[in-house]
Amino acid sequence: MPYVWRVLRRLGVGESDVEDVTQEVFIVVLRRLADFEGRSSLRTWIYGICIRTASDYRKRAHRRHERATDSPGTDIAVEDRSFAAREARAELDAILSVLDDDKRAVFVLYEIEQLDMNEVATAIGCPLQTAYSRLHAARARVVEEAQRRRQQGGES
Amino acid sequence: MSDEAPIRLIASADDPALRALLEAGRDELASDAQTVALAAKMGPLLGGGGGGGAAGGGAGPGKVLGKVAEAGALKASLWGGGALALAVVVAGVTAGVAVRQATKVEPARSTALASGIASAEAPASAAPLAPPWPGDSAEVAAVPAAKAAVASASTPTFVAAAAPDPADEVKLLQRAEDALKSDPSRALALCDEHARRYPGGLLGQESEVIAIEALTRMGKRAEAKARAHAFASHFPTSAHLGRIAKILGEDP
User: Is B251's CB within 8 Å of A63's CB?
Assistant: First the structure.
């Protein structure tokens, strides 16, 4: 289930916390498995659990005044990753952080996890139309923020 | 607003720089150290042998995956019904670990993985500085740890661990949780039973949270607080700390 790890990261779970949050997702999966009714695919259902768990995490992290995302270079676990890829992900997460939770979830599921829009709406538990409007808004905001950061970087 | 699903940004040529960022985001996997730590937590679900196939010299990722799927299928046949899905999920996690490890045949890392898996059954060896914890029982340590180390050092087979069936562990804790409101002292007794039967089990943290809530409901607030304190010092980054604070009515 490498996608659980990845989607939690893109939803703003800090690198040093993602292991615990992944475990939390697992526990929820275990506990709620009896409620899984097969109305969606298991994968879609687990994405839904990831979104709620990440959202709870972000609220918790905010209350504790912790950083929800780490600054680069503070974690020994990243020793063998390419620096460039790590920088790129840090930049991506910085861009995604301008979205609110609802838009971020739709954007991440569609653009990175590549679910189709019906699956996105099911995982999030919102009407399809709502998912579409969140996606449009999120894309516009992401493109705008990406450009703004590039311009800012170019000037300095 | 269009109902047509738009072309994904990752497949669009409009903004190549943004596209590169999205690709980097899509390609993220847990680092080796993180997968080892995760395997240590998830290992018991596969009977303790989940990562055993990692370092086999002749085992390609496909072969390891096959083994993992076999293990999942075996569990599924034991668990029946809804557990089928879970077994597949768990097999998926461990497959991720196994494949990544199998692509690097590197003795030091293999040993690290072995100790990671073993530490799920013998937490004491993995966290020597941590205060004593009910799960850190020595009686479960030596033999499975040695078996896991041997298996991952040379053979691509899964260790048939003598670990108890994880499905029973889940059921036991579900009974404990179900009893919380109506009979907290019974819930507490079930948590104690969990600690005895599954030292180092997957749901050790979960069990302790239930025990803390049971104590609170029984009016044993001081004891609940003491156990919450021990929990926090043993698992300082646990995702359950929020729930514990809520149980005790404290701001986390």
Answer: yes
One-letter amino acid of B247: I
Confirm whether A76 is domain-assigned. no
pTM: 0.51
> pLDDT tens digits for A4-36?
999 999 999 988 888 888 888 888 887 777 777
Min mean pLDDT across B187-191, B203-207, B244-248 is at: B203-207
Domain for residue A66, yes or no?
A: yes
A residues 46-105 near B, CB within 8 Å? Answer: 46, 53, 56-57, 60, 63-64, 76-81, 85, 88-89, 91-93, 95
Range of A132's domain?
Answer: 2-70+81-155
Alpha carbon of B65 to those of B59, B93, B102, B161: distances in Å? 10, 11, 10, 19
A111 falls within a domain: yes
Q: Which two tokens stand for residue A93?
A: 């997460």
Between the alpha carbon of residue B106 and those of residues A24, B21, B32, B95, the distances in Å are: 31, 31, 12, 18
